[in-house]
Amino acid sequence: MLKRGFFILASLFLMLFTGMVFDLPKANAATPSDYDYSIIKQSPYPNSLKPGETFEVSLEIKNTGSQVWKKNGNNIVRLGTGSSYGNQSQQRDYDSEFYSSNWLSKNRPVNIDKESIYPGQSAIFGFTIKAPEKNGTFKAYFTPVVDGYKWMKDRGIYWQITVGEEQGTYINNNQNDDGVFNNYASSVVKITCDFNEYYSNQGSGTLFKNTSNNPNLPPIYVLTNLHVIKTENNTESFCEIKLFPNPKEDNYLKYQSIGYRTIDDTFDFAIIEPKEIESEKEKYKIEELYKYALPDSDIIKISPQENLRDRNIYVIGYPSNGNLTLSKGGFLGYENYKKALYINTDAEVKKGNSGGLAIDSSGEMVGIPTFLKGNIGMILDIDQIFKKIIS
Hints:
- The chain folds into three domains: 32-167, Immunoglobulins (Immunoglobulin-like); 185-293, Thrombin, subunit H (Beta Barrel), CATH 2.40.10.10; 300-384, Trypsin-like serine proteases (Thrombin, subunit H, Beta Barrel), CATH 2.40.10.
- It contains five helices and 25 strands.
- It has helices spanning 2-22, 179-184, 226-229, 296-300, 382-390, and strands at 37-42, 45-49, 54-63, 69-70, 77-82, 110-111, 116-117, 122-130, 136-146, 150-151, 157-163, 169-171, 188-194, 200-209, 220-224, 238-243, 253-258, 270-272, 294-295, 312-317, 325-337, 340-345, 357-360, 365-373, 376-381.
- Strands 2, 5, 6, 9, 10, 11 and 12 form a seven-stranded mixed sheet that branches.
- A hairpin with a 7-residue loop joins strand 20 (312-317) and strand 21.
- The radius of gyration is 25 Å and the shape is globular.
- The termini are far apart.
């Protein structure tokens, strides 16, 4: 009887112990959102190169996830190459045309520069690009990758480089001192919209305050292109809005927007309203934006720009490399495209400039840089936009 009682007691104890073992907390596996980043800045990059010419470039990227980036061991973080930006079907591990012999491989330019990059710290990816031997215009796309685990989100590290016999040139995004740029730079915002777990879109916008007292408009709003913030399946868009009071510095004000307003899906413009982020509302107050917003009553009073022929066109926005830029070109005429009026210019319009600001040499806003058609920049005319808003 004693032995039987002991056996029962031992069995109960074993069951209890076994249950306790299974109830012990387990380590959480890394989720895709644990690896994320933001683009801090980049070095000057080549706009054109001679065949076979090399150029040293670097990218500074901040670890905004919760996992430590490693240079050695498991889940090594490297820079990877892709075939395109702006769609979810791009080819990963693409053998880049700008491969140099000092790369890790044809689709891995470089590792991170330190053994470990902790959340909140930045990594420098410094590497050489080499132009292919044949002439043409080529595109270079880069995204951080956790080898053996996942690609990080595509945030549009994108360069377009023309290879030819002419002397190579480069673009320096940190040296724009033109008065036009200084007058408008702090009113142009950077917009990043997360469409799903792996894909985001980045563009630009211009900040306005409703001095026209239009009842259909919020007190403060951002004018941008519809294609910057519209999701492929028409779900509600969630976007981050960053305003840099001094675009030559890294300090910024950060807000969010949910959804958008537009006239119809055939007209490529939209209005988004900045909102405070609940967790950071004490740090970034909406009132701070008013000092940087342009009065929309000034724009509405502008008559149609019938004679731009003798004026330069300036395009201000955030190309996909992350820094605010100014490009300058001439007026080439008007064009009706998909029931909308566009200004043609040879000012450079890069991906990421979409939704930004276009002004003329007299300092008047003339439109929204929207897309590149061949080598022609297409700027959505501002006058028709505000006529549609008012009506």
